[in-house]
Amino acid sequence: MALNATTGSPPMSTRPTARPAGDFVLVNNEPVVGTMTPFVSAAPAATQQFLDCFGRCPTTPEYNPICASNRQMYLNEQKFNCALFCGADIRIVRRGSCQGLFPMQRG
Q1: DSSP of 44-98
Q2: Where does residue 79 rank: exposed (0-12), middle (13-18), buried (19+ CB within 10 A)?
Q3: Is residue 29 domain-resident?
Q4: What pLDDT, in 10s, does the model give residues 24-64?
Q5: Is the pLDDT of residue 106 over 80?
Q6: C-alpha–C-alpha distance, residues 35 and 102, integer Å
Q7: How far is residue 49's CA from residue 103's CA, in Å, rounded to a whole number?
Q8: What is the pTM for the complete model shown?
Q9: Rounded CA separation 46/88 (Å)
Q10: Which of 5, 81, 84, 86 has its Cβ near the most Cβ atoms within 10 Å?
Q11: What average pLDDT does range 2-24 have in this prediction?
C-alpha cells in the first residue's frame, strides 16, 4: 500500500456522497431499495387490550429510541419489549430514531 507523501499515512478511502437514484431508504445508514424495507406496509390499529397491556407495562423514562418494523419509534428498549409482550408482531429495524427510514406523515 502506498503511503501519502505529505502525511506518511495510508490514503483514506472516500465514500460517495451522492445518494443512489431510485426509491431508496436508509436502514442503519445504508441505502436499501424501498420495496425491500423491513417495514410492514400498514400496521394494524392497536386494540384496547393492547393499549391496556402497554399502559400497565413498567418502564423507565430513559430516551434511547428503537425504530420498529411497524413504523413506530419506541422511547427505549423496555417500551419495545412491552409492545412485544403485549402482542405486537414487530422487530427492531434500527436502534435510534426512525427519521429518514420512511416518508413521515403528519397526523
Answers
A1: PPPPHHHHHHHHH---------EEETTS-EESSHHHHHHHHHTT----EEESS--
A2: buried
A3: no
A4: 555 555 665 554 455 555 666 788 999 999 999 999 999 99
A5: no
A6: 11
A7: 29
A8: 0.58
A9: 9
A10: 86
A11: 53
Residue at 9 is within a domain: no
- For residue 75, what is its C-alpha cell? 422511547
Q: What is the residue range of 90's domain?
A: 40-107
CATH label of the domain that carries residue 102: 3.30.60.30
Q: What is the pLDDT of residue 17?
A: 46
Short-list 82, 75, 89, 74, CA closest to 57: 82
Domains identified in the chain, total number: 1
Dihedrals phi, psi of 3, to nearest 5 degrees: -95, 150
